[in-house]
What does this fold into?
Amino acid sequence: MTMRCFLPRDMAAVALGADRVAAALTAEAARRGLDMALTRTGTRGLFWLEPLLEVATEGGRIGYGPLSADDVPGVLDAIMSGAEHGKGLGRVEAIPFLKRQTRLTFARAGITDPLSLEDYRAHDGLRGLERAVALGPAKIVEAVTQSGLRGRGGAGFPTGIKWRTVAEAPGARKFVVCNADEGDSGTYADRMVMEGDPFTLIEGMAIAGIAVGATKGYIYSRSEYPFANATMRKAIVLAREAGVIGPNVLGSGFAFEPELRVGAGAYVCGEETAMLDSIEGKRGQVRAKPPLPAHVGLFGCPTVVNNALSLAAVPFIMAEGADAYRDYGMGRSRGTMPIQLAGNIRYGGLFETAFGVTLGELVQDIGGGTRNGRPVRAVQVGGPLGAYFPPALFDTPFDYEAFAAKDGLIGHGGVVVFDDTVDMRAQARFAMAFCAIESCGKCTPCRIGSTRGVEVVDRIAAGDRIAANVALLRDLCETMKYGSLCALGGFTPFPVLSALDHFPEDFAAPAMPAAAD
Amino acid sequence: MSRHEGWSAERARAVIDSHAGEDGAMLPVLHDLQAMFGYIPHEAVPLVADALNVSRAEVRGVVSFYHDFRDHPPGRHVLRLCRAEACQSVGGVRVADHARARFGIDWHETTADGALTLEPVYCLGLCACGPSAMLDETPIARLDEAQIDALIEAAR
It folds into this structure.
C-alpha cells in the first residue's frame, strides 16, 4: 500500500528546512524501496513544529516535527514499525493549538495540495461559487451583508454594504481588487491563503465579481512573497483551464478574470487608494476621499477593494449560509478572525477563532508566553500602526470595538509579543521612523511629522527637556492623527501614544551611553 | 558570475513589448526589467516611457518611489534582512548590527568585492520564526550571528 506523506512547501516551512527534509525523505524512501507518495501542501500554521511531516493512517494523519533531514531515517523506521518517535506528535488534528481553533477560512490549509482543483472540490471547494451563481447578484450581496462580515484588513467596514454600493454604482466597467499587500509585521495569513489554498481566494473574488457586476479582478500581492505569487499565478491558470473563472464562470454565463499584480516594496500601497494608483502604474500615492473607490476606483471605475481574508471568508458564507458564519463572534464582530501569533512567542502560528477571545488567552494560554521564557512586557496588536498593550490590558477581548475602546486596533490580526528587555522608547522611535520611510509624501502631517517625531524621540533619549519634549511628541501625534490623509500617518500615533501611556518609565531617563549611537 | 544579463536595448524592448496592451503595465514591466538586468538601467527609461506613452520623468518617479527598484546594479547576491517589529522582538536588530559590522557595509550598500548587497525589508511574513531574511530567492528563518558569518563566506 502506498504510504501517503504530506509536507508543507510554505515559505516559512522552507525557511525552516522543509525542502531538505523533502529531499531526504524522497531519497531515503527510494533507497528502501518504499512505495511513498509525497504531497507538498500549504502549512497548518503551527510554525514551532515546522517542518511538520504528516503521514496518512486509518486513524487520521499522524505528525512528526519539527524535523531536520537527519531525523528522516528514524522517522521512517518509526512509521514502518509503529514504534514511538521522539518527534512524534500523534494525530495532528488533536494537537491542542489546532483543536481549539474554529477553522472556517483556513479549513483546508495544510491539508490539501494547493494546486489540485480535484483536492479543492473534495474538501468542499467551489460549493460557495456554485451556490452564488445559482442565487445571482442581489442575493449574494444580501447573504454577505447578513453574515456580518467586516473588512479583515483592519478598517472593519461591512463587506456587504461595500458590495451593494459598487453593485448600484453606474458604470460599464467595474473591478474587484483583492488587497493581499500584507505589509504589517506579525501577519502572514494572506500569505498562507495564497500559498496553501489559492482557489479559495479565486472563488471569493469570483463571487464578489458576480455580486457587483465586475468581470475583471486584480490581486495585489507583495514582492516579498515570491512563493505566494508563484502559487497564485499557477492557480489562476488552472482555474481558467477548468472553467472556474474566465468568460463563463462554471457555465453560468457570468464572466470573471482575475490577474495577479505584484507590488514593489512600498508599505503604503496596502492603503486602498494608493493600491489603485499602483495598479494603474503610478507612484503609490494616497488619493483624497471622497470619491470613494466604490464610486470612482481603479481606472476611474466603480471598484470593490477587499482584504484577502475578507474575500477568503466569502466561499464559506455562500456555501454554509450567512447564519452559519454570523453565529460565531461577539457584538458587532461576527464570524472568525485568523489571528497570527508572532514575535517572541513560544507557540507562534495561525489561530483562527471566533471574535471574543481575550488578548491574554491568546498570548499566555494559546501562545505559551515568550519563546525565550522571559516575562511578556508588551504586545503590539495590528501591525506597525497598532498599539502596544501591557499585560494589564490582557482582558481585552479580540473585537473591533473593544480594541478601539482601549485606544488600539485589531488591524489584520497580527499579535507581536515582546519580552521584558524591550525598550518602548526605541519602539516608539521605530514607529515614527517606519512612517518616515514609508510615507507616500502626499500629506504634510505624515511626511514631515514622522521625521520630526523621530527627532523628538531622540531628544527625549538624550535627556533634553524630557517633559517638554514628551508633551511635544503627544501634540505631534494629535496633528498626525487628525491631519493625515490615510491610516499610515493617522495611525502611527497609536504605537507611539500607547508606549507613552503604558510604559512612561521608558521615557523618563536618558538612554544609557552604551545604548546610544 | 552574475545572475543578471548585461544591458541590451533589444532584450529590454522584448520585455516591454510582452506587456503591450496591458492596463497599468508599468510595474510589471519594471519588475521584468529588474529581473533581467538586476536594476532599471538608465537606458531603459526612455524605452519604457515611449511604450507606455508617459514622460521619462514619470518613469523615473515610479522607479524612485518603490523601494524594490534600483537604478544601479546590485552585488552578486542580495541579502534582505527584516527590520520590522516581529523580528525586532527576537533579536533582529542585534543580528542586523552584526551583519553590517561583519560585511563592513550599511543598508543599501554593496561589499567592496561586489559579492553582496545588504537591503532592509519590512516583513517577509515569517513572523513566528524570526529573525528572518532572504538571500536572493532563499528564505531563512531564526537567523543568528553564526549564520550571518556563514553567509558571507558562501557569498564569496
